[in-house]
Amino acid sequence: MLNEGDKVPNFCLDGIDEKGDEKRFCLEDLLKNGKDIILYFYPKDDTPGCTTEACDFRDNFNILSDKVLVVGVSPDSIESHKKFKEKYNLNFILLSDKDKEVMKMFGAYGKKKMYGKETEGVIRSTFLISKDGTIKKAWRNVKAKGHVAQIIKYLENEK
């Protein structure tokens, strides 16, 4: 499992860009944009918590986009991502990790407690990856509501 200070190995996933066009995205290419990356993992498109979080990223995009590239990752299909993007007018990249390999690499998939029961699934997590590909900050097991505000506060205090 990757932690703060670790170099993230290159990975490639299919997804959609901010316009909704299908592409294959590789970390090494995303890093070439010259910005840090907010890589956030969420369980499922168009569910209450995930919609809250995605819309928070959308609504704060003007604040975030100066500093970071926002990339959301879930196990959902490209088709599901397209519907999610269109329904909520999302303005950032969404990647599909059907095999959950990237999620597992970041420790964003595994055992978690839900309503007192242990289940296996996506653990809502966010990582700030620096331009050189190392993890600057990891937020694990986050609550959807208010999380984007935490990220913005961190980014403002970083400089």
TrEMBL record:
One of its GO terms (cellular component) is cytoplasm. Pfam families: AhpC-TSA. GO terms for biological process: cell redox homeostasis; cellular response to oxidative stress. Its EC number is 1.11.1.24. Gene3D superfamilies: Glutaredoxin (3.40.30.10). The active site is at C50. It is an enzyme of class 1 (oxidoreductase). The keyword Nucleotidyltransferase does not apply. GO terms for molecular function: thioredoxin peroxidase activity. Keywords: Antioxidant, Disulfide bond, Oxidoreductase, Peroxidase, Redox-active center. PROSITE patterns: THIOREDOXIN_2 (PS51352). It catalyses: a hydroperoxide + [thioredoxin]-dithiol = an alcohol + [thioredoxin]-disulfide + H2O. Residues 2-159 form the Thioredoxin domain. Thiol-specific peroxidase that catalyzes the reduction of hydrogen peroxide and organic hydroperoxides to water and alcohols, respectively. Plays a role in cell protection against oxidative stress by detoxifying peroxides and as sensor of hydrogen peroxide-mediated signaling events. Monomer. Belongs to the peroxiredoxin family. BCP/PrxQ subfamily. PANTHER family: AHPC_TSA FAMILY PROTEIN (PTHR42801:SF4), THIOREDOXIN-DEPENDENT PEROXIDE REDUCTASE (PTHR42801). This is thioredoxin-dependent peroxiredoxin. It comes from Venenivibrio stagnispumantis.
